[in-house]
Protein: MFS transporter
Amino acid sequence: MSPRFTRTQWLICIIASIGFAFDIYELLMLPLIVRPALQELVGASPGTPQFEYWVGMLFFLPAMVGGVFGLLGGYLTDLLGRRRVLVGSILLYAFSACAAAFVTSIEMLIVLRCTTFIGVCVEFVAAVAWLAELFPDPKRREAVLGFTQAFSSFGGLLVTGANWLALQYGDQFPAIAGGHEAWRYTLISGVIPALPLIIIRPFLPESPEWEKKKNAGTLKRPSIAELFSPRYRRTTIVTTIMFACSYGAAFGALQHTPRIVPSLPQVKEMTAGKPVPVQKKIEQSTAAEVNFYQEIGGLTGRFLFAVCAIWIVSRRGLMRLFQIPGLILIPLVYLFPARDNLELLKWGIFFAGLVTIAQFSFWGNYLPRAYPLHLRGTGESFAANIGGRMIGTSAALVTTTLTPLMPSKSTALAAACVALAVYLIGSIACFWLPEPAAEEED
Structure:
């Protein structure tokens, strides 16, 4: 029987859970605020080429910058330690998101979204490596990684709730940039994770495994080139492709859903004949409601994964448990209810969130076992940031590029095409996913 958690271990799990929750919180702000932010900062109307261009840039550029600096952050995690990099990354994304609430131009919003993305990209890698090494018992490690990552979906629920509060009560908050726009208050709420971290930081230990080797002078230097040595080449290539596909489904389809909702017949009926401010409030509130279903689905998927990860030995089998249903379900959701049925879309997006978001927890459990200690942060970072953040999130730009070419310029149809493509590629690549060794020695 495993010993009970110590106070320090509980503290570690709490701060990691906060970090996981708010890195998703920061990312999922964009689908909720992009429409009103662009209408104010650019003056572009939804559906126009100018609007679609800036939507694509807001999804694409921060992901590219975050991926590059996230890879550097993974290298620094191996070089400087897990705790130091983790704390710095959380502070970076929290204060960047807060500052973004005060922007007066689209260019400044993009710059601050880039720094937010850098913090998020680094935080995931540092937190996963840190937790994996603080809990050496395999079953406990699987459980800790699975359940702490489940709090990522609480982040999605929290940002949906913050956006709803901003929509309902924004008029009562202090004015920002001369107005009471809900998207600005939603952005400013991103500073929340920095507050407990400032208090808890002195009590957080470094990874004992990493610190022991560092102090003894036996810690090998991390190397990106080593990721492509014969020993790790297949792991690096396959995980990068599959991580890209997981993010491609989220960014190429799921994150476009709040923009799709206002075009549904039921929403148009609710807004018909009403003043523009009332129309915007109805559209944003309905989009937030649909997003809530997606986040509940994602939360369910993460907890389902956490339970299955303890009992299913085969990592390929575990991944396919979510991959195969997604391959069939998600394209159908965007082909049909996302175009004409609001109520059915809510349930469709619930299951789409379940099978897609669970895959992110898979990578947090799989990657620490795929590389040795000195290469863990670098290896995780390559798959997560080059594969997921850079290649995967570029699917958002693919969707916005395809939208004007679709019948009726339908974003839903474009999302269906992208979802089908990335799920198909990921399902094929899974055949080559290596089963990790029982325990990888450094």
Remarks:
- The mean pLDDT is 87.
- The domain at 225-437 is CATH 1.20.1250.20 (Growth Hormone; Chain: A;).
